[in-house]
Amino acid sequence: MLTESKLIKNGDIFLQKSEEFKIFNDCFIEKFSPKILLAPSSINMYGAYKGGLVESVLKLTANVININKGLNEIFDSSKLIKLSFRFSIGKSILFVEEDEDWKIKKGMYYKYADLGVPFTVPELSLQMLNECGIELTKDEFSDILCFSKQQDKSVETFASNEFNLVNFAYKLTSNQMKNISINK
């Protein structure tokens, strides 16, 4: 659970970095930032609280930057930051607040939205970016999509090094967030 001040601070950082690195355009910020800033990162694990998505994106981005620094910045930081911010934003429309009292009383505050289509989080992210005319390079599109195809052997062959670094950092960040929630 985040305090109100931490929720606001994280939101300010998210929006500032979005502008600084040209991650999202005005249409996207206007249309989706209210949901993104309050969205959970999951429905029943770590980050299952208001602001959990932005908190996890910021932690992921910090890990990505630190790993890249450890590699003597062999990758373009801007590309890594964009991928870190973009691939999981679909969670903001996939997860909605639970409305059944008995589930809320059991600590289940979120559920899956009835979207009518079986999109993965990265596919929803791509749809959101497309809705606001954010043009992606072939590599940017592929890297986001790779997050939904990790069981596919072609990912091992064709995924970019940037995807592999962000994916590694994502697993690291997930474990860090799990450990934080367990130790509370």
Q: Which percent range fits the helix content?
A: 55-70%
> Element order, helices and strands?
HHHHHEHEHHHH
Cα-based radius of gyration, to the nearest Å: 16 Å
Shape: globular
Q: What's the story with the biggest beta sheet? A: 2 strands, antiparallel
Termini separation = 10 Å
Number of domains: 1
Which spans have pLDDT < 50 for at least 5 consecutive residues?
none
Number of helices: 10
CATH architecture: Orthogonal Bundle
Strand content: under 5%
Whole-number average pLDDT? 91
CATH topology value: Hypothetical protein af1432
How many DSSP-defined strands? 2
Global structural class: mainly alpha
Biggest β-sheet: strands ordered side by side in the sheet:
1-2
User: What is the CATH first-level class name?
Assistant: Mainly Alpha
Structure, explained:
The chain is mainly alpha-helical. The protein has one domain (4-183): Hypothetical protein af1432. Helices cover 64% and strands 3% of the residues. The protein contains 10 helices and 2 strands, in the order αααααβαβαααα. A two-stranded antiparallel sheet has the order 1-2. α1 crosses α3 and α3 runs antiparallel to α4. It is globular and about 50 Å long. The termini are close together.
